[in-house]
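Weekly structure sync, notes
Attendees: PL (lead), two postdocs, one rotation student
Agenda item 3: pending single-chain targets
PL asked that the sequence for the first pending target be pasted directly into the notes so everyone works from the same version. It is reproduced below exactly as submitted, 365 residues in total.
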Amino acid sequence: MVEQDRCHDINAWEQRKGAEVICVRRDTIANPPKDIVDVELENLIEGGGLQGDLSLRTASTSVFHEHDTLFGRLRPYLRKFWFANTSGVKSGEIWSLYSSTLKPEFLYALTQSAQFLNQALQTAGTKMPRAEWKTIVEAYFAVPQAEEQEKIGILFQKLEQLIDAEKRKLHLLQERKRSLLKGIFNRTIRFEGFTGVWKQQKLKDEAISISAGGDIDREKLLPSGRYPVIGNALSNNGIIGYYANDYEVKGPAVTVTGRGEVGVAKAREMNFTPVVRLLAIKSLHDSHFLECAINLHRAPLESTGVPQLTIPIISNYKLLFPPTLMEEMSIGLLFKHIDSLIAAVFLKIELLNLKKQSLLQQMFV
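Predicted structure, written out during the meeting:
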């Protein structure tokens, strides 16, 4: 816990004009070397960090230096920034910020605070809003003494290192899952004791029922309860709310999104009600195995402007099934365990980000 009296005495902070404490780098390089790091707007991650291939060269010649803060000025509400650990070139839609008076790590934390973001959000343009530098230089920012700047910068650097470590763990788990899915469904990986031939079957021949969810009964919908009401959203496991006493599908079953990001299957072990054309499949197969089999399948979708997955299309999915339910259950249990590990790491990342945002709000008042 941050000690209020020792780490954050707001009375000791000084209001400084942006022009006095924050600079934007305007250097360019005429002929960047081929191996230089190139950061484009799509490489910056919402909430901080980098993604993608930074070796791909573009026409960018605007320079950034190590320990600069890179901030995406196009659509600043996306909150894209990165604390540079190297030098390179960048898109003109990215500010490269530095300071001769602020500690680099503190400046990086400051740009993530409401103090800075509120000024950046005073944009020019409507369809493609951009943060205006003149707004930043005219604004005032609360700045502590150098010693406290250093402590705050170190705190947020440690938090980001923890978040980055968990993100790497999440990536490795997801890659391991993809590798195992490919190996198992190509039959290059088999559990010991299982040697039978897998067969391809249409889903309609293996399902007891395939149904599509109807409208939400708003009068019965509750924020909490016994039986979840599930839609096509991927967040919160698709749960929209709950019904106290009613459900339409008895678990175990598999749901498949029919709208939005279509074709995403999820095993459901509880009784539930699907809504808004969410597809629900009942079968005698292991639900976690069937989830994996459907998620590996890709088929043309019906579209009248909005892509959708319908009962006739999914009924004709051709899926591979092992010869015994025991092999299905072994595969399903493996991926259920992997998914629980992925969910745990994802939750940890969310909690660390919430802690970071809470500290930013408390410190930069």
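Discussion points:
- The first strand starts at residue 14 and ends at 17.
- Confidence is low (pLDDT under 50) at residues 1-8.
Action: rotation student to compare against the earlier draft before next sync.
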